[in-house]
Every structure is written in C-alpha cells, then in structure tokens.
Amino acid sequence: MQKYNIWELRTKISSAYLAEDIVKELDLDINMIHILKSKELGTLSAVKDFLYAGYESLLDPFLFSDIKRALRRIDTALKNNEVIYIYGDYDADGIMGTCILYKILSSASSNVHALLPNRFKQGYGLNCEMIDKLKAADTSLIITVDNGITAVEEIDYASMLGMDVIITDHHECNEELPRAYSILNPKKPDEAYPFRDLCGAAIAFKLALAMIEQKIASYDICELITFAMIGTIADIVPLTGENRIIALIGLNEIKKTKNLALIELMDDANLNPHEITCADIGFKIAPRINAAGRMTDANETIRMFCSNERSFVKSKVSVLSQINKFRQNEEKKIYAQAAEIVEHENPDSRYIWVLSNASWHEGVIGISAGRLAEEYNRPFILISENDSICKGSARSIAGFNIFEAIKNSEHLLTRFGGHSAAAGFSINKENISEFERRLNEYAYKNGISKLLYNTKYYDYESADGIFTEKFISDVELLSPFGYKNPKPIIRLNNCKISNITKRGQDQSHISCSVIKQNTAVRSIAFCQKDAFEDIRDNDLADILLYPKINNFNNIKNIEYEIKDIFFYDNCYSEYEKAAYRHFIYFYDKAKYFASENKISQNTLEETLSSSSAGEVITVYSYEMLKRILRFLRYSKSEKEFSVCFNRIDDYKKEKKYILICPLDIPSPSNIKVAETNCFNAYEEDLYKNENTVFLNNKYKTDSVDVGRELLAYIYVRLGDISALCENKLSLFIEHLKKNDKYEFNYINVRLAIDIFVSIGLANYTYHDDTDTIFIDKIVCKEKKDINKSRIMIKLNEIAN
Fold first, then answer.
1. Which of 34, 102, 468, 621 could tie 460 with a disulfide, CB 3.0–4.6 Å?
2. What is the DSSP letter of 385?
3. Does 511 share its domain with 616?
4. Quick check: bond before 488 cis, omega within 30?
5. In a domain, 36, yes or no
6. Is residue 678 included in any domain, yes or no?
7. What is the pLDDT of residues 623-655, one digit of tens each?
8. What is the per-residue DSSP string for 441-480?
9. Which of residues 418, 453, 488 is at a domain's end?
10. How much is the average pLDDT of 11-22?
C-alpha cells in the first residue's frame, strides 16, 4: 500500500546567529547551521555537552525526591542480611533494569533475588499470588523495576504482610499513588527530578549510581550503563536529554563489554561490537531479549545476563534466537490476518481499530499493533481473546495519547497501564464492542482526524544535493538517533530518478539513481517499493534523504538513504506565469478579511476527500499545488478534478476544480481557499461570495524577493537580452542564474522589469506565446527612487 505523508519544515527553535557561532567555534561544516537551528541549543556550553557528552553529563540521582529514603531502606536491608526481591517486568526494559539492581545488590549480599512474573500465568506487574510467594520466601523488601506505579491494592497487601516496597517505574501515574515505602518515578506528581522520560532500566541505573556514591554497594558502572542503554533504546523512550547521554555512553561501552550474554547476543546477530548502532540494538538485540518474555518465561534471561559460564550463556542465547524466530512468524501471521480485515472493511472506516482473535498470541500482539499503526497511521488495539479475561495491547500514532483514550473507558477494564504511545490492558470479552465504540467516540471528539495523515519533517532544502564527508561526519555528532532525536533529513526538489531496481529477499527495497543538476547519486529506499510503482514518463520527484558514506572495498562514496519520495508532473513553468499574472492583477486592489465563521479547521486532505461537484479549491503556492497533486494521485481521484491556472475557461457544475492563482472565479460555485495568499491576503474581488470557506493554512514565498542589489544587477544586464539571449525571456533568466549570488526566477525577473517601467527607467513588450521580449532602457539624468514604485511598495509590504 502506497503511503501518503505530509511534508513540513521542522520548526526552527534556536536562532541562526547562535547556530552560526556554534559552527564557527566548533569548526563544523557550514550546512550544520541548518541542522542546529532545529535543536534546543541553549548556550555554547550546552551544545558542547550535547555533542561530546560523557559520564559527567549525567544528572545527579539525588535529584529524585524519594531516593534518600529508598537508599536508607536498602542499606538497612543489606546490613541486616534481609531477603530482598527485585521484581521486574518481562520486557527488555524490565529485564535490563532487573539485571542492573540484581548485579549491584548481589555484590553486597547473598540474600538478593530477582523474579519476573510469567506473562501467561501472572500477567504484568505485582499481584497477590506473587506477593504470597515472596512472603513465603521470608522477603522483607521488594524493589519493583518498570512496574508498580498503579499497583495500589497489591502494595497495600504487601505492607499488610510486613513487606516494604520500593517502586522504580516510569509509567504514567493514576490519581491515587501506591502507599509504597519509596517511589522513584520521574512522572510522579510534584517530582523534582528534571528529566521525566527515563525508562525503567535507566531509573534502576540511577538508583545503582546513588548506591555506589553512598558506598552502599559497588559494581562496574560500564556494564550497568550498557544495560540501561539497551533498556532505553528497546522501550522507545525519547532519545533526548539524559536518555541520549545514556544511549551514547552505553553504545561506546558495549564495544568493549566483557558480559558473556552481550558478547554471544551480538555474535548470534552477526554484529560487529565496534560498529554497533542504535538501530542494531533496537532491531536485533532487543527483540531477542524481549522474545522470552513475549513467548515463554523471562527468568532464564536474567540468569543468562548474570552468568559467567560460557556454555550456559551460549545455550540460552541459542534458545532466545529460536524463540525470536518463532515470535517473528507469529507476528507476521497476526499482522496479515488483521490487515486483511482492515482492507476488507476499509481502513478509513474507523479512527481506532480494535480487533480480537482467540488464536492471537498475547505476547506478540503489541508488535503487530505497532506495525499496523505505522502502516495505516491510526491507533490499533489487538486483543488476544479468552473465554474469560482477554489481554489487549495498544499502539498509537504521533499526537494522540492512547493512555488517556483508554483511561476514558477504564470502567470497562479489569486492569490497564501504559503511556501516551502504548498501553496494555485486560478486558472481559463482552465489553470489547462497547470499548471500541467509546474509543472511537473519544478519538473523534479529541480531533484525531487531523492526525490521520503522517507528517514527515525535514531540516532544510538543499539546492544541489551535494554533501561533503565532513558534513556527514559532523551530523553523526548528533547521534544516537531514535525517537524524538531523529536523523537530520534534507529535502531535494525537482529530481529525475533512474535505474530503479528492486532489492532484498522480498524485493521490498529500491535502489536507484537520483539525478540533480546533471549529477547522479546512488540511492537506497528501504521498504518503499510501493512509492515507486506509480512513476510516470517525465515525472519529477521530490525526496527526503539522509546522506551517508558507503565504504566498499576501501572506496568511499556518498549516497542517499531515501526516507520518502513523491512523483509529480512538472508544471512549475505554468505556475510561475500564473503567479506573476495574479500579482500584477491584484497588487493594488482591496483586500478581503474573512470573518471567523468562514474559517474551517479541516485539513486540506479532509477538504479534498469531502469535496462535491461544482466546488472550486483555490491555491497560491507551488508547494500546496504539489501537495494536492500528490494526494489526488494517492487517493486515485485525479480524474475527478480539473487543474486550471488563473481562470476556469469552461466551468461545469458537475466537475471539481483546482484553481491556481485565480483572477476570477465562476460566481455560482462553492469555494474552498486552501491557503492564505501571501501576495494580498485574500482578494476582495474574488471572495465576497457567501459560499467561500477558508482553510487555516499560511505560506510565505521567496519567489517575489526583489531587493535593491538584485534590481541593480538585472538592470545592468538588460542589454544582454538582445545581445546574448536572442530576445528570449527564458534564455535571459537562465543567463542571470549563472550568478549564484542571487535567486532568479520568472516571477522576480518580470517584476524587476515592471518596476523599471513604473519609475521611468525602461519600456518593454513581451509576447507570451513566443516568449519574446523587447526592452528599451531610458537614459535618465536624475536619480530614481525604486521605493516610489507601487509594485515595490507592495513587495515591501509582503516582506514585512
């Protein structure tokens, strides 16, 4: 299925001046200015911390408001040789966090034990059955990892039995907090810890750091932070702030790890420890660790990470690898079955999909839900049915808080927990239908329709697509890349694509050549074969890319990793002429100010999908026109619309129209204005029609940037029109473009000539059908003020 994504320039957070200072101070490639402007830079010192972070960049663990109380209780338990149980979660984050605390505490006491619940027998988190088991083992202190923050009744029960509970968890808190001995959770209300996005393993690591600092216990910090790094990447928490520091340090430490389990896991995944990346952890190491908890019992995985016996570790890694392959097959089967239902019933028929099946493995449904959410760009909830209690797993899309959506129907559930992007729950079978109804009602009321088309962000547009090895090396300083710290993405417009070849075992990848300014660059597009299926003769392409260095046989070449691509019929020449005619026609006419009740909050895509016969959608920017053309191609509705420039020559009520830079609009038509016209807001002559609705889109163009220096340069070169350019305007514009100091285009060159005429510096005639221009310069003794030109006055108004 071909995907439709909206492209937006990433918001510039930091000033260009600060970015320029940083580039100069740190001797970075000049193009890093564009990348750094979209980062929260703060100060030069903060940037150095970001780019060259080390252990000293970690936050003080004693910023946790409850950590001293936790440490006192742990210290007492160790000194009194009390039985301590670390009670973790069975996912990779929980396993790594449990290993961290087991490693450090067991170095100080032989009465420390680790226990993970069985997903299929006990389910997630603390429960009374497991608490009874711990009490029978004479436990006096329970430390939870990656769970516990919603276990109010269970912790009360443990307290009643005489056991203290320290919670380390990162999940969202309910209104009522457990009455635990101590709670370490950065999301806790009124928590002082300044970074709230730590994962479970990272919180366990912070507690371990505090123990080392207080000399309560000791262990190799390099191994502990490696475990925290795996938990951080596996749990897909934002790779910003302290998370990025943990990931950065951990990825360096894993290269020299002595932990047998990590060594064997990397070997099983065919990874070179010295070249391991964030993606390797997320897609190759973490799934193997997760596999045990998803499919069987994860307690053996704890023993694997804590063992020094190579044969035992090797055998456990082999078992994990086999379980992971089984998990992959199960996940593909569930995905295929769910996708078939969705396609049959129409993906757009629901805001949130809730699907259930008795054969779906409850340990795998979360992964399948994530893939479905990514594919269809709407939240998915998959439920493993049972005769009594059913288990569900939810995955959301950017901008929609699935935790809050599910919480709205909490009364229908027997248990639930999670965060904004993912959640798990238990539900009685008879409540599933009502649960789905309430979820979709909540989604509609909370504006999910605005989020159903994915937005891809880019950092800047490259004019030529030429990148240096130093630039690519400097970009890597921003890694590790992941959630909320994405790879910098660069946009390249008006490319030709050739040598398209399918790659990979399932032929889902594409290799091709991207041609820009007569230079071809080898490129790869992973999992994007569908995007290339609709390419047509003479299509141009805009691409989002990440440049990288391919080192093959010690020969380095720069290539593009294509992150998204769309093809379109090039009509820029027609657009430029239409935009120029529109400006000249309206620049000195009255504006129309739309009343608030005429402004629609619908997206462009909603407007196109719901348009009716006779409707006219007006457009002013080439960027918006390309977005429309892309959506019409994606939705297979191109034949429903006629695309017209300036005027509709033969309006028919049964047709739909896209009208670019209108000079007039047929009066009986319904009008939807796709964007504010930057030339003149809205034109009074066009939009007094009662049937006009304005979408809330704004755009700014640099096509009409006409400064004094550009005007002076064009004026000096006017003689070249006849001398060198055969009196052809298009040849004159190409001639001007040889000076790369300025951006020349049809619009600003025509406007420049019009300004010369308006202040008495020239006369000209232009024949549009032959592109022929004849110009006479007028010799003037007195100085002319360009700012007295009505055209220039309007251009200055637009610029400001």
1. 34
2. -
3. no
4. no
5. no
6. yes
7. 999 999 999 999 999 999 999 999 999 999 999
8. HHHHHTTGGGGSSEEEEESEE-SS----HHHHHHHGGGPS
9. 453
10. 82
Strands 83-87 and 656-660: unpaired
Q: Is 71 exposed, middle or buried (0-12, 13-18, 19+ CB in 10 A)?
A: buried
Print the SS3 string covering 266-307: HHHCCCCHHHCCHHHHHHHHHHHHHHHHHHCCCHHHHHHHCC
The model's pLDDT over 287-306, given as tens digits with 9 standing for 90+, comes to 999 999 888 889 999 999 99
Q: Which of 350, 372, 380 is nearest to 441 (CA)?
A: 350
Q: Count of domains in the chain?
A: 5
Mean pLDDT, range 371-375, rounded to an integer: 94
In a domain, 37, yes or no: no
Mind listing the pLDDT tens digit for each residue in 479-507?
A: 999 988 999 999 999 999 999 999 998 89
End of a domain among 508, 541, 568? 568
CA 687 to chain centre: 37
- 518 and 576 fall within a common domain: no
- The domain that holds 554 is classified in CATH as 2.40.50.460
For residue 788, report the phi and psi dihedrals to the nearest 5 degrees. Answer: -90, -10
Looking at the fold, whether 194 and 299 belong to one and the same domain comes out as yes
Q: Are residues 623 and 505 in the same domain?
A: no
- Answer whether residue 679 shows pLDDT above 70: no
Check residue 762 and give its pLDDT: 94
State the pTM of this model. Answer: 0.87
The pLDDT value recorded for residue 690 is 66
Tell me the two tokens of residue 601.
């909050």
Higher pLDDT, 308 or 600: 308
- Is 15 a residue whose pLDDT tops 80? no
Cβ 426 vs Cβ 416: under 8 Å: yes
- Name all contacts of 157-161 with Cβ < 8 Å and 24+ positions apart: 157/128, 157/131, 158/126, 158/131, 158/134, 161/131, 161/132, 161/135
Shared domain for 170 and 281, answered yes or no, is yes
Specify whether 278 is located in the same domain as 162: yes
pLDDT (average), residues 102-127: 93
Instruction: Give the SS3 label for residue 690.
Output: coil
Instruction: Using pLDDT thresholds of 50, 70 and 90, give the confidence band for residue 595.
Output: low
Residue 84 backbone zone (phi > 0: left; psi -120 to 50: alpha; other: beta): beta
Nearest to 529 by CA among 550, 505, 496, 556: 505
Average pLDDT, the chain: 92
Q: Which domain covers residue 651, as residue numbers? A: 572-695
Same domain, 444 and 476: no
The C-alpha angle with vertex 91 and arms to 89 and 95, in degrees rounded to 5, equals 65
Q: In the prediction, which pLDDT does 591 show?
A: 65
How many other CB atoms sit within 10 Å of the CB of residue 184? 30
Sign of torsion over alpha carbons 101, 102, 103, 108: positive
What does the block give as tokens for 603?
Answer: 């997206």
Q: Does residue 405 fall inside a structural domain?
A: yes
Condensed to tens digits (0 to 9), the pLDDT of residues 680-733 reads: 556 666 776 667 888 878 766 667 778 899 999 999 999 999 999 999 999 999
Measured distance CA(472)–CA(484) in Å, rounded: 20
- Residue 75: Cβ within 10 Å count: 16
- Do 589 and 673 lie in one domain? The reply is yes
